[in-house]
Amino acid sequence: MSCVFVTGTDTEVGKTFVSCALLERLAQGGVATLAMKPVAAGAVQTKAGLRNEDAVQLQSAMSVPSVPYEAVNPVCFEAPIAPHIAAATQQQVLTVSHLASAAQQLQRSYPHDLFLVEGAGGWLVPLNQQESLADLALALNAKVVLVVGMKLGCLNHALLTYAELQRQAVEVVGWVANQVSETPMQHAEENLAWLQRHLPVPLLANLPYLATASNQAASTSAVDYFPDSQTLMSLLQGKGVLSPA
Ligand SMILES: Nc1ncnc2c1ncn2[C@@H]1O[C@H](COP(=O)(O)OP(=O)(O)OP(=O)(O)O)[C@@H](O)[C@H]1O
Ligand SMILES: C[C@H](N)[C@H](N)CCCCCC(=O)O
Ligand SMILES: [Mg+2]
């Protein structure tokens, strides 16, 4: 069973946006997808309890039906802050062992072809004083998709993230260039070309800024920028070929 961990160069770079597009593209080809947001910081109180928008979107984009919210997002904090700090304000301590067990339980409970896990913020966001979300991805033996928010500063952020992924011997199956602002970054093409030369993994998609009425509609329109479902599944399983630079 394939496990893909979606990380990014920062918070708010489009990890959820890309995750939903990946899930929808795979579903078009009949791939059974299951998704999880293990830790969310930034949620609203509802009658059903705390709800994080990322987890709600993943829950509706995955193809396996009727997965309860608490299984998709077992740990949720209201404050949009670093997760280990949010946990401390609630006298809680996050651990890889607890989150990995929840992920394994979810995978055992629902037959699927691909399990997608969205991080929070970037690759090294802490869970506690010793462990980070990277340790969770390693515990899940996940392959990684790196989302690069195309804005000034992204070259450094992308290279640092990729260097750390390599140092930890993580298999990076691809990256996505995502235009995060309505006003494109200056010299976007040169930045893209530079990243293509320095990230030696397939570019899964080069996404423009897609302004639509809702996040869900926008990520649905992002689907067409990805390879077809079968090709995408192969790429996510690490069977892809390098995109031409
Ligand atoms: N290509 C795009 N076109 C239009 N809107 C986008 C695009 N990419 C991202 N967005 C929007 O930008 C915002 C941030 O994206 P998103 O929530 O996916 O970031 P994230 O990396 O998942 O953040 P977090 O670290 O909080 O999980 C969202 O409102 C999303 O819909
Ligand atoms: C609130 C935000 N959108 C995410 N849920 C959490 C981002 C944590 C970033 C921590 C950091 O790297 O400083
Ligand atoms: Mg997100």
TrEMBL record:
InterPro entries, per database record: DTB_synth_BioD, P-loop_NTPase
Domain of life: Bacteria
MF-aspect GO terms: ATP binding; dethiobiotin synthase activity; magnesium ion binding; protein homodimerization activity
Localisation: Cytoplasm
Active-site feature positions: 37
Reaction catalysis annotation: (7R,8S)-7,8-diammoniononanoate + CO2 + ATP = (4R,5S)-dethiobiotin + ADP + phosphate + 3 H(+)
Pfam families: AAA_26 (PF13500)
Pathway this chain belongs to: Cofactor biosynthesis; biotin biosynthesis; biotin from 7,8-diaminononanoate: step 1/2
Required cofactor(s): Mg(2+)
UniProt entry keywords in alphabetical sequence: ATP-binding, Biotin biosynthesis, Cytoplasm, Ligase, Magnesium, Metal-binding, Nucleotide-binding
GO biological process per UniProt: biotin biosynthetic process
Binding locations of ATP: 12-17, 54, 118-121, 178-179, 208-210
Binding-site residues for Mg(2+), renumbered to this chain: 16, 54, 118
Membrane spanning residue stretches: none
EC nos: 6.3.3.3
GO cellular component terms given for this protein: cytosol
Key word Electron transport present: no
NCBIfam families: bioD
Family per similarity comment: Belongs to the dethiobiotin synthetase family.
Subunit structure: Homodimer.
Function: Catalyzes a mechanistically unusual reaction, the ATP-dependent insertion of CO2 between the N7 and N8 nitrogen atoms of 7,8-diaminopelargonic acid (DAPA, also called 7,8-diammoniononanoate) to form a ureido ring.
Protein name, per record: ATP-dependent dethiobiotin synthetase BioD
Organism of origin: Pseudidiomarina sediminum
